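fold description:
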Amino acid sequence: MTETIARAWAVARRDGLVLGFTDHDLALSFDGVTFRPDSGLSARALVQGLGLSVDNSEAVGALSDSAITERDLMAGRWDGADVRLWEVDWTDSANRRLVFRGHLGEVVRSGAAFRAELRGLSEPLNRAQGRVYHPRCSAMLGDGQCRFDLARAGYSAEGVVEAEDEGRLALSGIAGHDGGWFEHGRLVVLTGAAEGLSGLVKADAALPGARREVELWTALGIRPAAGDRVRLEAGCDKRAETCRTKFLNFQNFRGFPHLPPEDWLIAPKVNR
């Protein structure tokens, strides 16, 4: 029986694209997915622990197949993709066993190939739970705890890329915002080869003539070209004063601004 067993992978990207791969020498089909044998993806041996230990495996592939392109990898379009792995009898695909379900973690390029970490369903259990008592806000701007509407007038702006150099962008067509307004915010590419990619804003400077210079913490996987349109979203440094004066949203502030500092807690007490 083991001589008729093959591995079959189904990978569903967040944009809805679903691809199937197999290490068998012929195509397999089930669950509405065709698993191609000539694709640039193969499976490493799966290592799974008992209980809630983290699944540990890799997907390995070449950049020679049209299904997996270097541009999509660099753009992060495969990051977080849902992954299912079956052991299937290639003589009868109804005889199969699901042995892994999770998602792709970090995707690393190495020459003409790539490696993608696989993370199992137990991965979220490694995340911190509960609230952190800290003077700064623990919410993300615009999420369910913050409740701020980023579509509100004045908190985003669209412009055109004039030039880009390793995460530094010169933009035009953005006026009416003070320098630093978009620091800690987000830049989203709206058109061009990098459409849909986004990056966190490290520095934001307003220049005369509705021009702006923006530096990202990390350069985008695909460089925006001159003429591409982008959107800047206002940033929050998570301070109580910023929440109160910039966003008028202090009723949803999730920090503890009146906590005494750490040096107060360890300072010697004076006897009276």
